[in-house]
# Entry
Amino acid sequence: MLVVLGNLIGDIVSNSLRWSSIAGFIGNFAYPFLLYLFWTKIRKKPFSLRTGGAIAALVASFVLCALVQTAIITPAVAYFYPQVDIPYSAATVFCNATLYPITFSIPFMILPQEELGFVPVGSHNSFELGLTKRPPRKLRLTKTDSDK
# Structure
């Protein structure tokens, strides 16, 4: 929500507040809200990126949310600014909403979970803000033939 408000404030401060900023506000709010709904209300499994299927579901949710965001923002831009190249504008919105989350956020979500031992805070099917440290794993040392 802070990013959505920050984007709107940026439009105001930079003197680029237009009628299409309303669609941008709605589209930028819809994207994380739909991700939240998918990962907490619709999907019945806990949040984890330990399987290829979970990663594919996250990528699919990024693409779906980007399509919704593009479908909200692009018609407003086309209506208020008919001189804008609409396919280029739609591609820019879509790529901005998919490429960054897929290339950067997935590795940064896997790293704390797998390498640092953090797990998402929350119950079985919810994901709350914050991470909690997983208890350390006990190492089993076994004697090899050279140790005998």
Q: What stands out?
A: The helical segments are 2-13, 20-42, 52-80, 86-115. Residues 2-137 form one domain. The radius of gyration is 21 Å.
